[in-house]
């Protein structure tokens, strides 16, 4: 790095001499502010000369003509070694900051690395969950199969959300309601056109699911059928009994498993006939049925009766939020690490 001195050239146009005086004023101002002076040493014109100042005892800026507003000549002496030292310090300060690697720096770098790895893991988890949801939805549209004769949990586990065909007879005298339940209907216009008890303008979440025990024709076993959604003012059996299927019927249903009690939902009270959620073991024991549950397909909806097709695939999927959280933590901790260890 060369440090320059500006010397007056013998003669020279007045504009060059004016430029020289301007340079003196700039250097004085910079020196007063105690800031770097290297930026002012880019002065290179025909009237001035730049040379190395490392071995110069003293650098003198002088003026022999009254170019400034002061009439008398002024002399500015700068100590050359001090000037060189200050310039070198300024050079070091202007260098881009570098990371100071140490055991602590490497250890702390593990925080953003760990957060980043968890974010990548949540990416894979998100893809897996989306594939699972797509797979479950595809099951709903598959061709129905016969309900197995073996109604154990092991045989029905692979059939969750699958369509099965059953034949038998409803036991309407043993029906009950699970409420409150909102209406799930992906084809609202179809239900209104089919003449259901509610028009499209009367959609309501104040209702429940009508559950009716069903005796299978082949085995004589009794299972549970969710016939569909009813508004609360149709809970009384007398208000919907005209729509009850009589005799042996065949229809499709969706296999469902037991349901964990949702948060903030009360406990079932079997003795009072109060049911808040689908606990298959508890319901089957109280109503003397098999712990098997089918949601009647939407096609079973009859005019004025419960609205079928209440199978709502509600799989908890928070992986996108988790992924966003971990990648945000990665960025924050990395910036903090750079601020801490970059000198």
From TrEMBL:
Localization terms from the record: Membrane; Mitochondrion inner membrane
Transmembrane segments: 101-121, 320-338
Pfam families: SURF1
Protein topology in the membrane: Multi-pass membrane protein
PROSITE patterns with a match to the protein in the record: SURF1
Sorted UniProt keywords: Membrane, Mitochondrion, Mitochondrion inner membrane, Transmembrane, Transmembrane helix
GO cellular component, one term: mitochondrial inner membrane
GO biological process terms, semicolon-separated: mitochondrial respiratory chain complex IV assembly
Database matches in InterPro entries: Surf1/Shy1, Surf1/Surf4
The keyword Transmembrane is assigned to this record: yes
The keyword S-adenosyl-L-methionine is assigned to this record: no
Summary of the function given for this chain in its UniProt record: Probably involved in the biogenesis of the COX complex.
PANTHER family: SURFEIT LOCUS PROTEIN (PTHR23427), SURFEIT LOCUS PROTEIN 1 (PTHR23427:SF2)
Family affiliation: Belongs to the SURF1 family.
Protein name, per record: SURF1-like protein
Native source species: Caenorhabditis remanei
């Amino acid at each position: 790095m060369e440090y320059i001195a500006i010397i007056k050239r013998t003669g020279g146009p007045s504009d060059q001499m004016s430029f020289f005086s301007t340079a003196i004023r700039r250097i004085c101002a910079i020196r007063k502010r105690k800031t770097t002076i290297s930026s002012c040493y880019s002065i290179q014109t025909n009237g001035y000369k730049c040379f190395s100042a490392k071995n110069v005892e003293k650098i003198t800026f002088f003026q022999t003509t009254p170019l400034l507003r002061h009439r008398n000549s002024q002399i500015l002496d700068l100590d050359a070694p001090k000037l060189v030292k200050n310039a070198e310090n300024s050079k070091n300060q202007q260098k881009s900051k570098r990371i100071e690697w140490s055991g602590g720096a490497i250890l702390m770098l593990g925080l953003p690395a760990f957060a980043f790895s968890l974010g990548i893991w949540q990416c894979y988890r998100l893809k897996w969950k989306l594939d699972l949801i797509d797979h479950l939805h595809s099951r709903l549209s598959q061709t129905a199969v016969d309900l197995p004769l073996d109604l154990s949990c092991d045989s029905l586990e692979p059939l969750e959300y699958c369509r099965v065909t059953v034949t038998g007879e409803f036991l309407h005298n043993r029906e009950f309601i699970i409420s409150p339940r909102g209406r799930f209907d992906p084809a609202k216009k179809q239900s209104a056109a089919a003449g259901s008890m509610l028009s499209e303008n009367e959609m309501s979440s104040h209702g429940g699911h009508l559950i009716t025990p069903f005796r299978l024709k082949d085995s004589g076993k009794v299972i549970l059928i969710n016939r569909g959604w009813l508004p609360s003012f149709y809970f009384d059996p007398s208000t919907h009994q005209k729509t009850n299927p009589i005799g042996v019927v065949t229809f499709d249903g969706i296999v469902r498993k037991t349901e964990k009690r949702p948060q903030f939902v009360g406990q079932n009270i079997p003795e009072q006939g109060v049911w808040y959620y689908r606990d298959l073991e508890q319901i089957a024991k109280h109503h003397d049925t098999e712990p098997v549950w089918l949601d009647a397909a939407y096609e079973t909806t009859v005019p004025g009766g419960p609205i079928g097709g209440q199978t709502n695939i509600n799989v908890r999927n928070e992986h996108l939020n988790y992924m966003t959280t971990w990648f945000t933590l990665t960025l924050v901790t990395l910036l903090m690490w750079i601020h801490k260890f970059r000198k």
